[in-house]
Design brief:
The chain is an alpha/beta fold. It has one domain: Glycosidases (TIM Barrel), CATH 3.20.20.80. Helices cover 36% and strands 12% of the residues. The chain contains 13 helices and twelve strands. Strands 1, 2, 3, 4, 5, 6, 7, 8, 9 and 10 form a ten-stranded mixed β-sheet that branches. Helix 6 runs parallel beside helix 8, helix 10 packs antiparallel against helix 11 and helix 11 runs parallel beside helix 12. The protein starts with a helix and ends in a 10-residue tail after the last helix.
């Protein structure tokens, strides 16, 4: 009896320690401010979910990011999912996305419930990867400093404003050295998170340029080569283990990354879909892929050197079907779409009108209490 009590006590201690470790996790999502009818805005007609039969729409319908009710709903949904900050897609001064963030989101009465960082969209600011032009980099960061970095709701690490730079592995690997040196000299307090990891074999010389490293593209290095299988999870674990060892060797933080699935068939062609369940299990279970990523690979890899942050691709990138934003939640499941072949978009995979499922998985796997479950 005494031995059983000791074992139970040890188990409770270990459980409490794990819970305490995970309770420090900071959850970030890539957030797209580009939905809306104005010039520069995107609509939902080229999303996979709009082509399904029946269609599966966002819980807020075909929304406009400028709408205060949409912002309120997204903040409440984020709190339900234990999301702490949005890394907001930014395409330059006075762009549609800039105006939404600066004029609608940050002044919103509920904005103080979250924090907000910039996802610097390199493809829109630095030109073609084949022939980059770094001329806008310094003036863009001067603009960000003037309009964002000192805002009380801007996301900071150790008092330093955080900027995520998309595709650094393309724009700053063996190129752009002087532009980056000048950026560091002119904005020494900025904490730069680099989208720099892709596959195994990451190098210390690449990691050393940054304050923290991560990857936006979960699909390309795990789900694309291996599909929605357990092998893709094993690959993600190996990638994160390698990257953490490399980053730590040069005192750089690692921010691990997860995504619920991928299907960009509504907006472009040529990519194999990655459904949101394991295809190597006898019965499909919606959300199992995302839960497995978080539980087995991502949550164990959070790094104190990067403030224990993990990133989710994405909150609302509907065009690539990586969103965790809730759908209407009718629980209907379909593999049919409105193409001539009836399954050209779905590629025969099942798609569920999942409701709040992914917010709840994220909350459960990061082991934090729900702040406000009454999302609208």
């Amino acid at each position: 009896m005494k031995q059983r009590l000791i074992l139970l006590w040890m188990f409770l201690l270990i459980f409490a320690w794990v819970q305490a470790q995970r309770s420090d996790i900071t959850v970030g999502v890539y957030y797209y401010t580009w939905h809306g009818p104005d010039v520069g805005g995107h609509d939902f007609t080229t999303t996979l979910r709009d082509h399904l039969v029946p269609a599966q729409q966002p819980k807020m319908g075909h929304y406009n990011n400028n709408d205060p009710a949409v912002i309120e709903s997204h903040i409440r949904q984020s709190l339900r999912g234990n999301i702490h900050f949005w890394a907001c897609s930014w395409w330059g001064p006075d762009s549609f996305e800039d105006k939404v963030l600066r004029n609608a989101i940050l002044p919103h009465p509920s904005a103080s419930n979250l924090r907000y960082a910039i996802l610097y969209e390199s493809t829109g600011r630095l030109g073609s990867p084949d022939n980059p032009n770094y001329d806008k980099l310094q003036t863009d960061f001067a603009y960000l400093k003037e309009h964002y970095f000192n805002h009380p709701f801007y996301f900071k690490i150790d008092g330093r404003p955080v900027v995520f730079i998309y595709l650094t592995r393309v724009y700053f690997r063996n190129r752009g050295e002087q532009a980056l040196t000048d950026l560091r000299a002119n904005f020494p307090k900025v904490y730069i998170v680099a989208d720099d990891i892709f596959g195994r074999g990451y190098k210390p010389t690449d990691a050393a340029k940054w304050d923290a490293v991560t990857a936006y593209d979960v699909y390309g290095q795990t789900l694309s080569p291996y599909g929605s299988t357990h092998k893709s999870l094993s690959q993600l674990e190996l990638i994160l283990q390698d990257a953490r060892t490399v980053a730590k060797s040069v005192s750089v933080g690692l921010i691990p990354f997860a995504s619920p699935g991928f299907n960009d068939g509504g907006v472009r062609s040529g990519h194999d879909a990655a459904p949101r369940y394991f295809v190597d299990k006898p019965e499909p279970v919606e959300g199992d892929l995302f839960r497995g990523m978080l539980r087995d690979a991502v949550v164990p890899a959070v790094d104190p050197l990067a403030d224990n942050i993990l990133m989710v691709t994405s909150f609302n990138e509907w065009h690539e079907d990586t969103q965790i934003e809730p759908t209407a939640g009718t629980i209907l499941t379909t593999s049919r779409d409105d193409s001539d072949g009836a399954m050209n978009y779905t590629q025969g995979y099942l798609y569920a009108d999942y409701g709040n499922l992914y917010l709840d998985i994220l909350r459960e796997e990061t082991l934090m209490a729900v702040t406000d479950p009454n999302d609208t």
